[in-house]
Amino acid sequence: MGKSTLFCVIAIAMVALLNGCNRVLNENDPVSIARSFWTAALSTNPNDAKQFMVKGDSLEIGIRGYSDKDTALLGEVDQQNGYYFIQTTIQLLRDGKIISVPMRTVVVPVEGRWRVDYWSTKQSVFDAAFDSSMKWFSSTLRNADQYIDDILGTEDKKEALDYAEERLNIEFDKAKSAILKNYKAQIEKQDNSSAPEKITQPGG
């Protein structure tokens, strides 16, 4: 094989290798950045995800525990004002159970490159969870109304609507109280677990 032929073979191999790398991580593709971020964040070295983050040097990943079954499922992509919001479900295997956490991975442009705004991504869990709950609630009522007469207790449409509004107000207030109560308990539990242990002095 001549030198020129050998050089061509090496060049072609290098181009193929580079193309393969680009398929794994495309800096110009927000979804690729999001996928690479979560792959690293759910690995044994979560700090590797910081290279894909906004302000990665000042924000911890903060995912408790690890399993090689942990994964991130990316779904519908929504673009608003130059930002990308990617529907995401994090699935964590903990104590033999799959924990599913819905959120939206927020990808923003930083100095010409796409980066994950992890702080905003974590804050989206509340909205995503509420949205999923409302979709399930609406779907359940729609299916019930399709096959069961008078699920709201009256045939009059206006009375049915008024009754539904009353029930929703009551149930939303109950749900709000329960959620805030549980959330407060979780915060207090975390504060207590991170507080320094008190040392009892002899004779005290």
Describe the structure in your own words:
A hairpin with a 2-residue loop joins strand 3 and strand 4 (113-116). Helix content is 50%, strand content 20%. The chain contains four helices and four strands. The chain has helices at 3-24, 30-41, 118-147, 157-194, and strands at residues 71-80, 83-94, 97-110, 113-116. The radius of gyration is 25 Å and the shape is elongated. It is of the alpha+beta class and 204 residues long. A four-stranded antiparallel sheet has the order 1-2-3-4. It folds into two domains: 10-125, Nuclear Transport Factor 2, Chain: A (Roll), CATH 3.10.450; 149-191.
Key phrases:
alpha+beta; Nuclear Transport Factor 2, Chain: A; 4 helices; 50% helix; elongated; signal; DUF4468 domain-containing protein
**How much helix, percentage-wise, in residues?**
40-55%
What structural class results from the helix and strand content?
alpha+beta
State the shape: elongated
Low-confidence stretches: 6-24
What sequence of helices (H) and strands (E) makes up the elements?
HHEEEEHH
**What is the count of structural domains?**
2
* Mean pLDDT over all positions: 80
- Number of DSSP helical runs: 4
Strand order of the largest sheet: 1-2-3-4
**Range of strand content:** 15-25%
Radius of gyration: 25 Å
CATH topology of the largest domain: Nuclear Transport Factor 2, Chain: A
CATH class call of the largest domain: Alpha Beta
